Amino acid sequence: MTDDRDRMADSTVAAVGKVSEALEFVERARGHLYAFHQLIGHADLTLGDAVTALRDAGHVTTADVLDGEMVGRNVLRGRWTFQVVEEFDDSYWTPFREIESRIRTDLVGGARHPHEARMKEKRRTHGRPGHESDP
Q: Where do the record's region annotations for Disordered lie (predicted)?
């Protein structure tokens, strides 16, 4: 493999790799945030079912308390989970992705995963099936 990744300084590749690694963790956190959003949404719908079941079982006062206090309640002040997700996307995730991309463009010619590409080249068995450098 002889390309621009070979000519990049190891320290630059390592530093840019740390930025990309941090973004990968943010991507994972975002996935957990979406899981939270879906779990809370499902819980709220299930609470609605519980309210109906309590009313059907004759527990109208209890159903009214549950319905009035919890069904449709904000998870954070003024926010449902979709709003939390949107605010995270707009105020943190999108700017981080943009800055990480600019850093890669400026410092490693836009290459994604140059550290891993070097590692692959060092670790693969050249000429062996299943160890090709490119698809």
A: 108-135
Model pTM score: 0.82
Token reading at 117: 């590409």
Within-domain flag for 73: yes
Residue 27 lies in a domain: yes
Q: How many domains does the chain have?
A: 1
Per the document, the length of the chain is 135
| pLDDT tens by residue, 3-39 | 555 567 899 999 999 999 999 999 999 999 999 999 9
CA separation for the pair 37, 83 (Å, rounded): 9
Are 48 and 72 contacting, i.e. CB atoms less than 8 angstroms apart? no
- Angle in degrees, CA 62, 68, 70, rounded to 5: 90
Range of the domain at 86: 17-120
